[in-house]
Specification:
It catalyses: D-erythrose 4-phosphate + phosphoenolpyruvate + H2O = 7-phospho-2-dehydro-3-deoxy-D-arabino-heptonate + phosphate. GO terms for molecular function: 3-deoxy-7-phosphoheptulonate synthase activity. It comes from Streptomyces spectabilis. This protein is of the alpha/beta class and 404 residues long. Helix content is 39%, strand content 13%. The protein has twelve helices and twelve strands. Strands 1-2-3-6-7-8-9-12 form an eight-stranded parallel barrel, surrounded by six helices. α9 links the parallel β7 and β8. It is globular.
Length: 404
Amino acid sequence: MSRAHRLLAGELAAALARPAAQQPDWPDPERARAVVASLSRAAPLVTPAETARLADRLAAVARGEAFLLQGGDCAEAFAENTEAHQRANLTVLADMAALLARRTGRPVVEVARMAGQYAKPRSRPLDARGLPVYRGDLVNSIEPTPAARTPDPARMLRARADAARAMAVVRDFRPGTRPPPGESGRYVSHEALVLDYERSSLRVDTSGPEPRLASGLGHFLWIGERTRDPDGAHIAFAALLANPIGLKIGPRTTPEQAVDYVRRLDPHGEPGRLTLISRMGHTRIRAVLPAIVEKVTASGHQVIWQCDPMHGNTYTAANGYKTREVRHVLDEIAGFFAVHRRLGTHPGGLHVELTGDDVTECVGGAGGLTAADLPARYRTACDPRLNAEQSRELATAVADLAAA
Ligand code: PEP
Ligand code: MN
């Protein structure tokens, strides 16, 4: 083992020994260890060269020369992972990117939430029936029985195999609309949540300012709102990665905390290494985001500012369906652009939950979906997604804001 390998192995062990929120309680830890060992022998899904190319593209976003468009299912599900579904999602993302590129005259970097988005953080450990909550197909089954909800480490093997098939679809995908000039490749991302899965495809990368660990499980990985304890395992793990990383920041984030994250996750000041994904809610973004942007900008780090207009705007409709209103989503995006325009910073990207399928999960939009329409085609395994029509409408609105 080289010195870099030894050092990183020690740092990884120390990171993973920290407290980790939202981890599955595997009933048979020995079996889970065996699964991780077997995953570690599988071929990586993405190459370090692709990840490095994305890092270059994200540096351009951080400098204000390009826009980052990220989107896909809230949760990928084994049963829904058909090629038709994946191609529909890639098509709507490509259409949105093409529209944005055409209207703004700037390249758009497209990153799918795909090929690994199988684990979900949850607000409560038990559901309304008193069963262990569904934590994504990587961990347990959505079926409401005690047996199906028991975490099963073998699901990590299925997730990895499905991710490999999804990656093949991504590689093979050619949109009808041409990608904008200068853009090549299409990238994948997911939330780095279940650390047994995330630790299973790491190799030492010495191409950066210090030896780091390149994840072979996705080009871009992000840390979610519920696992961003600054002293917890997820942040320490992300700090060791060579991949570009994202961090969700909710409305209770203080400017001081934001700067602390930026120092931990971008210690070498690499433009675009870190994407701060604000998910404040449409009523709060205008009040909360400015001080964060000002303080981080003053720190000298060049992060990407990305707006997730979905997760701060979720509510339960009177008929019990979890939903979001298109007008709230649009209002949060408008607030995001207004804040950055006023401060002279770059509104660098958008992170959305969407599908190319004709679902009825979010209300509003030109199609005029109401809460009464939700039961018709409510298919998500977790959060409500924009459908193809709502997504294209959103892209038009964003293009208006970005081109202004
Ligand atoms: C998500 O992106 O699906 C998610 C759970 O987001 P957040 O961590 O921002 O709540
Ligand atoms: Mn979600």
